[in-house]
């Protein structure tokens, strides 16, 4: 039986070790060089690394599996999934926006310019745009703002109008707005600080976009209450949608089934792996958490 190569030996970015890299393999282990790893506020850091040609094919919503250094004397046995923030093809680099919440990401926070960083990717199924869409609504909160950020590249490439609602606890945590503004999107920031992040207010904003025929599709990530809102409005107005799901993973390649979640398709509940069948799913098939 003929076998298909899924991944090849590590690609050391900046070297000529690409002869046996199996170009048909959809995934690659990459040894990148850290260019920057700076704090942008009290919770999030912005990591920039060099990228191989295959890494630069990453689609919005896809992720890379990081082999993080340990922040202490213990070992880290599993990689950490991290969605792509920016694919910079011109400068041949990848950017990630991540929150330091555990040993893995706190280990990543210790990386300094010049360090070598091991990643596997690009992994998973990303966001997509249909040819007939003219205007979309993007709604995110928390770490979901980083996952949704590359949609700015999609709307710019396809000439699509967008209303982007950034929900956060405070204004300094409402990230990614600059990327969407550069793409020509209307950016609306709602926060807990001034009470505008209330579901009722967000619902009114989306309903107005639907009434104005400016909602051909919905995109969301990062908040269960906002996901459920968009799912309800999508069903009410027959607007298609996509949601990026967050889940703990082990292998990131499908075999371990650690990242399985429940979905409902045509009234039947089924299990899907977030790592390989997602992390982006049909909004009406995804279930809350």
Short description:
With 289 residues, the chain is α/β, with parallel strands linked by helices.
The oligomeric status of these chains comes to single chain
CA-atom Rg in angstroms:
19 Å
Strand content: 25-35%
Q: What would you give as the CATH superfamily of the largest domain?
A: Nucleotide-binding domain of ferredoxin-NADP reductase (FNR) module
- Percent helix range: 10-25%
| Total strands | 16
**Distance separating the two termini:** 41 Å
Secondary structure tally, helices: 7
Name the shape in a single word.
Answer: globular
Largest sheet: 8 strands, mixed
Looking at the structure, the CATH topology of the largest domain is: Rossmann fold
Structural class: alpha/beta
Segments where pLDDT lies below 50 for 5+ residues? none
Provide mean pLDDT, rounded: 88
- CATH class annotation of the largest domain: Alpha Beta
Order of helices and strands: EEEEEEEHEEHHEHEHEHEEEHE
Q: How many domain units?
A: 2
Instruction: Give the name of the CATH architecture of the largest domain.
Output: 3-Layer(aba) Sandwich
Any chance you could write out the topology, listing elements then pairs?
Layout: E1 11-12, E2 28-39, E3 44-50, E4 63-67, E5 80-83, E6 86-88, E7 93-99, H1 103-108, E8 116-123, E9 135-141, H2 144-148, H3 151-158, E10 161-168, H4 177-182, E11 186-191, H5 199-211, E12 217-221, H6 224-237, E13 241-244, E14 260-265, E15 268-273, H7 274-277, E16 280-282
Parallel strand pairs: 1-2, 9-10, 9-12, 10-11, 12-13
Antiparallel strand pairs: 2-3, 2-8, 3-7, 4-5, 4-8, 6-7, 13-16, 14-15
Helix pairs in contact: 5-6
